[in-house]
Design brief:
alpha+beta
Length: 320
């Protein structure tokens, strides 16, 4: 496939309706970058990140940062995808795959989504907002497809949540739109947010939990799933680039301590301070923890009966 064909494919969200659709696109994209790039630019401050530069067909655009320690190449992806499917099957069957498959789970999800995002970076500069929105929507869809593949009921939609007084009398209904609504046995169990990065969005996730649980007098778990928290930055030298973090640790800590902790925060490309900081490491994990253990533990907690909530399924509307 040419870059133009890849970009056209990635901008059509109707082409991504199954996990296999993502795998097929990723295979084609990795084959293209194996031989079709103008250059690979190494980050000046974190050398495991690189940027793909396209040729004239892609207006010589430079992509988002790609973590080379996570991104599979064309030669290794076929086997990795097969291993990934095996892991999903084992999780769906109630098994716990061996620990050495965790890295494959993280890297495959990362590679699937970054192939979409990097392809969309081939759009003209004037369409960058479109690229961000499509990329964000497709990441939300990928995570929902993965959860549904576990035989877990999961949709995106708007809820009409009843707000009651102290006597249990319904006063009014409040609308909430969420990326993930996970249910089991006629109960809503988990509310989730899925974004490619936490930039300008982390505050809302904490506030959503606080307001929802305060208004409904419940303790319904709220989770957040992010792809990464890095962006490209220009250095002082021409044609050289580095990466900068978009995660705000101070905000995260303040909301966790003073408002309410989230019930799970997960990354594919986790930042070093999320592992090293004592408080952050208690609350932020790599995404394998969600599929291996946390998803099942949260589904076993008491939920909110679906009869109380009118859920209208819909496509996501938030930007990336």
């Amino acid at each position: 496939m040419s870059l133009t064909q890849l970009v056209n494919h990635a901008t059509n969200k109707e082409r991504f309706n199954s996990i296999e659709d993502y795998v097929d696109f990723c295979t084609r994209y990795l084959e293209y970058v194996d031989t079709g790039l103008q250059a690979r630019i190494i980050s000046q401050n974190e050398s495991h990140y690189q940027f793909f530069q396209y040729k004239q067909e892609g207006s010589f655009n430079i992509t988002r940062p790609i973590n080379s320690a996570l991104m599979y190449d064309a030669n290794s992806f076929e086997q990795a995808a097969q291993q990934f499917n095996l892991t999903l099957e084992q999780l769906r069957d109630g098994q716990r795959p061996s620990g050495d498959l965790r890295e494959n789970l993280i890297r495959t999800i990362y590679t699937l989504q970054q192939s979409v995002g990097a392809a969309l970076d081939g759009l003209p500069a004037g369409k960058s907002n479109q690229a961000r929105k499509v990329n964000g929507d497709l990441f939300e869809r990928l995570i929902r497809l993965l959860i549904v593949s576990m035989n877990v009921d999961c949709v995106s939609g708007t809820m009409q949540v009843p707000v009651k007084d102290a006597d249990g009398t319904e006063l009014f209904k409040s609308s909430y739109q969420h990326d993930l609504l996970l249910s089991k046995e006629n109960e809503l169990k988990i509310i989730g947010s899925v974004k490619t990065s936490s930039k300008d969005r982390i505050d809302k996730v904490f506030m959503d939990k606080f307001l929802y649980n305060r208004l409904t007098d419940t303790a319904l778990p709220h989770i957040a799933i992010f792809l990464n928290d890095v962006q490209r930055k220009k250095t002082k030298r021409e044609n050289e680039y580095g990466v900068s973090a978009t995660f705000l640790p101070g905000h995260f800590k303040a909301y966790t301590v003073k408002l309410n902790p989230l019930d799970g925060v997960y990354y594919c490309d986790i930042r070093p301070n999320m592992r090293e900081d004592a408080l952050l490491s208690q609350h932020i994990k790599t995404i394998d923890h969600f599929f291996y253990s946390d998803l099942w533990e949260l589904l076993d907690r008491p939920g909110q009966t679906l009869e109380e909530i009118a859920i209208k399924e819909e496509e996501p509307t938030d930007d990336e």
